[in-house]
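Key result, reporting period 2: structure in, sequence out.
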């Protein structure tokens, strides 16, 4: 197997073998706009690309080194680990954070233990998660009638109510649609008090992804007003729901419920086999969690709760990494305290 850097003219071949939007060429180009370094490698057999990976590198304050981030990659194996170690060395990286796109249905016998052992034996150790460990994954292969039947009864009722109230769903993947999303996002973050990327982040994202067909913007409209706006991703047969925003007004018309159902129909109509709802709580969710409402909402659509392999840091300097972990733990404690005190 030959492992080498991907050339620009190989973009489409590379995209065809990576299994998540965050590993695509366009996502890497977008991340370059945010000021981070991006490295891409292809794994070739007999001149044909079989796998690809993309890593971003971020400066670590004070320590003078970088941290690599490799989200939603393929199943870890020896070739991948060797390639990542070389990338870490070439980019002065203290570690590369790995969050493989490997998941299994919660409640099934675990197949993750042997992967965990393999990673530990090769210099990785459990790290602080950036992605949630769980998500709802909906199989879109059944008929539309069967998918609707599989909704929770309350969810079906809310979808039907939204239709009766006259809520309509429109796609507006355009600069105007992005501006509408950002306007509603401001209201959402102000109301719910959660973190969101800034306008520049989304504008750069749209500049790189908006014309590719991978990034799509949908609105739920009631009486001429946009109540809900979502950014969706679609890549290699999987639909994703990464970003959403909603207004406080007219929550009784259940616009979000209808939008989610229409996204299921959209995914099915566009040949997707699965819908990854991009994060949830675990099998025993804390009802006091600020994310419980999102979890319960997504659960209503009949998907399987899945657990990802988790987060691992492939470490190059264990002693310095220990110092980094100590400082990072203090930083997160301060951020949580700051949030509580509203400093």
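The corresponding designed sequence is given below.
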């Amino acid at each position: 197997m030959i492992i080498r850097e991907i050339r620009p003219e190989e973009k489409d071949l590379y995209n065809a073998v990576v299994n998540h939007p965050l590993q695509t060429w366009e996502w890497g180009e977008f991340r370059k706009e945010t000021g981070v370094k991006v490295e891409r490698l292809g794994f070739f057999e007999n001149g044909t690309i079989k796998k690809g990976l993309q890593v971003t590198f971020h400066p670590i304050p004070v320590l003078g080194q970088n941290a690599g981030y490799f989200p939603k990659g393929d199943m870890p194996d020896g070739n991948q680990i060797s390639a990542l170690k070389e990338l870490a060395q070439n980019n002065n990286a203290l570690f590369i954070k790995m969050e493989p796109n490997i998941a299994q249905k919660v409640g099934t016998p675990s197949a993750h233990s042997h992967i965990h052992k393999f990673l530990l034996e090769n210099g990785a150790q459990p790290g602080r998660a950036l992605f949630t460990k769980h998500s709802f994954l909906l199989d879109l292969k059944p008929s539309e009638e069967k998918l609707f039947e599989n909704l929770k009864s309350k969810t079906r009722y809310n979808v039907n109510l939204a239709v009766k109230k006259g809520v309509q769903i429109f796609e507006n993947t355009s600069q105007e649609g992005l501006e509408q999303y950002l306007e509603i996002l401001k209201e959402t973050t102000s109301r719910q008090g959660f973190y969101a990327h800034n306008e520049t982040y989304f504008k750069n994202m749209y500049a790189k992804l908006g014309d590719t067909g991978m990034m799509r913007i949908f609105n739920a409209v009631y009486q001429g007003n946009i109540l809900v706006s979502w950014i969706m991703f679609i890549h290699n047969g999987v639909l994703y729901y990464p970003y959403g925003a909603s207004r406080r007004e007219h929550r009784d018309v259940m616009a979000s419920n209808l939008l989610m159902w229409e996204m299921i129909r959209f995914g099915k109509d566009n040949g997707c086999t699965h819908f990854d709802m991009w994060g949830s709580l675990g099998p025993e969710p804390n009802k006091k969690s600020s994310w419980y409402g999102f979890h319960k909402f997504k659960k209503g659509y009949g998907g399987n709760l899945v657990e990802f392999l988790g987060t691992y840091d492939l470490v190059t300097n264990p002693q310095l990494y220990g110092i980094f972990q100590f400082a990072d733990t203090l930083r997160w404690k301060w951020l949580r305290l700051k949030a509580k005190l509203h400093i």
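The longest strand covers residues 48-60. The mean pLDDT is 94. This case is discussed further under Risks and Mitigation.
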